[in-house]
Amino acid sequence: MPVTKDRINLPDFNLSPRIDQVGVEERASRFTKRSIKKESKMNGLKLVLNMIDLTTLEGKDTDGKVKQLCYKAMHPHDAVTDIPTVAAICVYPSMVRVAKKALVDSGIKVASVATAFPSGQAPRDIKIRDTRYAVNEGADEVDMVISRGKFHAGEYNFVFDEIAAIKEACGTARLKVILETGELGTFDKVRRASDIAMLAGADFIKTSTGKIQPAATMPVTLVMLEAIRDFYYKTGKMIGMKPAGGISKSKLALHYLVMVKEVLGEDWLNNEWFRFGASSLANDVLMQIVKEKTGLYQSANYFSVD
User: Fold this and answer.
1) Does the annotation mark 143 as catalytic?
2) What is the pLDDT of residues 129-153, one digit of tens each?
3) What count of other Cβ atoms lies within 10 Å of the Cβ of residue 113?
4) Catalytic one of 140, 143, 161, 195
5) Residue 80's closest CA among 306, 303, 305?
6) pLDDT band for position 293 (50/70/90)?
7) First to last CA, the chain
8) 3-state secondary structure 8-64
9) Inter-axis angle of helices 279-294 and 38-50, to 10 degrees?
10) Per residue in 50-104, pLDDT tens?
11) Which residues fall within 8 angstroms of residue 123, CB to CB, at 6 or more apart?
């Protein structure tokens, strides 16, 4: 059965909680002041690495580039043992089959963007076909973008219905809904978009496409984490979170983990429920792991440029 909403019982999207901007920014800043000891730091770095979606979303993507990225996903650092793989490879639908074959039985997921990524400016039937194509090619996860123009026009039912239709088209694949928070403008709108996405069936909510600035920020992510927490309290359903874009340093990623633990708890501290959409982050994490193991930094020249 299609996911449809009860026009009588569906909450009024205009009633999403108002957000205290000053309070959110102040609380988010506190997470950056936590002290992380050596053993906890190493565990945290490995966890961050295991939460990364390595991504290539360029018009010049080739089979060879995707295969190279898949190799890196499975072997983040050939000279360092006892480190995990990343969580997933994220590619365009046309590259899903290549990634799926390259990853074989590694356990690493293949995620595909869809729905006229990154603009979302396409008719719904095209978005649905785009989604079904990605899933039929073997995608385990679909990253869709919401129609921001419709959202800003106040057509929240349209946004809800579109997400619900894409969720149905996903079948058994998990759906990550990208809000593109840099285009939403206010924390109130971020909260409203988060609520709509979760009510419509999102398995994850995601900040950004990584194609515009600002992308992920700690205050925006905090607003979305609190929306997830409130949704869980009301429904008992866990929703995943993916900040994407703008997270390139290990220290910042560790601050995000602290925030997740304090807002949502340890149940969310795994790649089933939390991801980083930041390919450049992987190399910095690997450099920090090598530093913790050997006491020496490796040059960036030792790592592939993705």
Assistant:
1) yes
2) 999 999 999 999 999 999 999 999 9
3) 24
4) 143
5) 303
6) confident
7) 41
8) CCCCCHHHCCCCCHHHHHHHHHHHHHCCCCHHHHHHHHHHHHHCEEEECCCCCCCHH
9) 150
10) 999 999 999 999 999 999 999 999 999 887 888 999 999 999 999 999 999 999 9
11) none
Catalytic residue among 72, 167, 206, 284: 206
Which pTM was predicted?
0.92
List domains and CATH numbers for the chain.
19-28+35-302 (3.20.20.70)
Helices (H), 31-155: 38-50, 63-74, 96-103, 124-136, 148-152
Residue (of 127, 138, 201) closest to 164 by Cα position = 201
Does 7 score more than 50 pLDDT?
no
State both tokens at 145: 């973008």
Predicted confidence (pLDDT) at residue 5 exceeds the cutoff of 60: no
Cα 49 to Cα 159, 186, 257, 277, distances in angstroms: 33, 30, 12, 11
Q: 154-172 b/e with 16+ CB inside 10 Å = b?
A: eebebbbbbbbbbbbbbee
Is residue 242 within 8 A of residue 274, CB to CB? The reply is yes
Integer Cα distance of 204 and 188 in angstroms: 19
CA distance 221 to 225: 6
- CA distances, 248 to each of 17, 70, 276, 277 (Å): 31, 20, 10, 10
Residue 100 is among the residues annotated as catalytic for this protein: no
Tokens 């997400």, located at residue: 163
CA 88 to chain centre: 10
- Residue 113, strand partner residues: 143
Task: Return the number of other C-beta atoms located less than 10 Å from residue 294's C-beta.
Answer: 10
Q: Is-contact 300 283, C-beta < 8 A?
A: yes
The string of DSSP codes covering 158-208 is HHHHHHHHHHHHHTTSEEEEE--GGGT-SHHHHHHHHHHHHHHT-SEEE--
Task: Reply yes or no on whether 251 is catalytic.
Answer: no
